[in-house]
Specification:
This protein is of the alpha/beta class. Helices cover about 25% and strands about 35% of the residues. It has three domains: about 120 residues, Periplasmic binding protein-like II (D-Maltodextrin-Binding Protein, domain 2, 3-Layer(aba) Sandwich); about 90 residues, Periplasmic binding protein-like II (D-Maltodextrin-Binding Protein, domain 2, 3-Layer(aba) Sandwich); about 70 residues, Alpha-Beta Plaits. Bound molecules: phosphoribosyl ATP (PRT) and zinc ion. Phosphoribosyl ATP binds next to helix 3, strand 9 and helix 5.
């Protein structure tokens, strides 16, 4: 029997749900007997290992797992010889410098000679070196945000998403070092066979990602404005146009990108479009 591709995902935590979700949306199903160490896909040659996120880069480098899903922050901090094969768009956060809220900040040079508490010593020391700053890094593994108030550090570098942790600890974000999201990482020496499975997986993941960024749109339009409407609704090839029984009107079907959505709707209304329906797309293959 051909071997399966082995993927490492986080066992529990912020990445776990979305990592499983992206595999399920890619049509990959698992046995019910998830023992939370390992799971076998039943309809795709994939085996899932559940691990702590910090261990994933090492396992992928060693080839214990062939690929893995991990925050870019962890991948860069661990600095292993692995590569990013896709950006997954979830678990977005930033790794930022924060200081007590009453202190002034003029720029990165203010960090000179300061004590910095962080769980990301590798990324922070690279950043300091790049900016020619000499500062003391105190590595701590959790609750970094309390370091200034207990006198352990002057400054922290930590992950931020809503900013409420900083706020409740009397800190303010002054610099973003890294914008991070979940990434799919891979071992650098996969076999041709393994790369073949990875390609299939990436193809499916991308079909799901594209579908999420696009909507299917249906509308009724006066025939005299069809040319103008087609210009702002390019669709995948070109829009589908069907005559309505009401003379002088047509039904137009197309696909619009989420980012341009409201802009396009306004233009369509200005061109006399009516009965605009917008529906989600489940998968999109171009
Ligand atoms: O047990 P294991 O080691 O596997 O998990 P973990 O506890 O190390 O990681 P986990 O599950 O907390 O986070 C996994 C990944 O989620 C991180 O590596 C990031 O890539 C991503 N992520 C996204 C975040 C956040 N957002 C986030 N807000 N990870 C942590 N936080 C923490 C942050 O450290 C701070 O304490 O949330 C707090 C800030 O949040 P706000 O909303 O108050 O700004
Ligand atoms: Zn962790």
């Amino acid at each position: 029997m051909e071997k399966k591709l082995k993927i490492a995902i986080q066992k529990s935590g912020r990445l776990n749900d979305d990592s499983m979700k992206i595999l399920k949306e890619a049509g990959i199903e698992f046995n019910n007997g998830l023992n939370m160490l390992k799971a076998d896909a039943i309809n795709f040659p994939l085996e899932v290992f559940f691990l702590r996120d910090d261990d994933i880069p090492q396992y992928v480098e060693d080839g214990i797992a062939d690929i893995g899903i991990v925050g870019e922050n962890v991948m860069l901090e661990k600095n292993k010889d692995i590569k990013i094969v896709d950006r997954l768009g979830f678990s977005k956060c930033r790794l930022s410098i924060a200081i007590p809220k009453n202190e002034k900040y003029k720029g990165v040079q203010d960090l000179q000679g300061k004590r910095i508490a962080t769980s990301y010593p590798t990324i922070v020391s690279k950043y300091l070196k790049k900016n020619k700053i000499a500062a003391e890094i105190h590595e701590i593994s959790g609750s970094v945000e309390i370091a200034p108030s207990i006198g352990l550090a002057d400054v922290i570098v930590d992950l931020v998403s809503s900013g409420s942790t900083l706020f409740t600890n009397g800190l303010k974000e002054v610099e973003v070092i890294l914008k991070s999201e979940a990434v799919l990482v891979a071992n650098k020496s996969l076999t041709k066979y393994q790369l073949g499975i990875l390609d299939k997986l990436l193809f499916r993941i991308n079909a799901v990602k594209k579908a999420k960024n696009n909507k299917y749109i249906l509308l009724n339009a006066p025939n005299k404005n069809l040319d103008a409407i087609c210009k702002i609704l390019p669709g995948m090839k070109s829009p589908t146009i069907m005559p309505l029984s009401d003379k002088g009107w047509s039904s137009v079907h197309s696909v619009v990108n989420e980012n341009d959505f409201w802009d396009i709707i306004e233009k369509l209304k200005a061109l006399g479009a009516q009965g605009i329906l917008v529906v989600p797309i489940e998968k999109m293959i171009l």
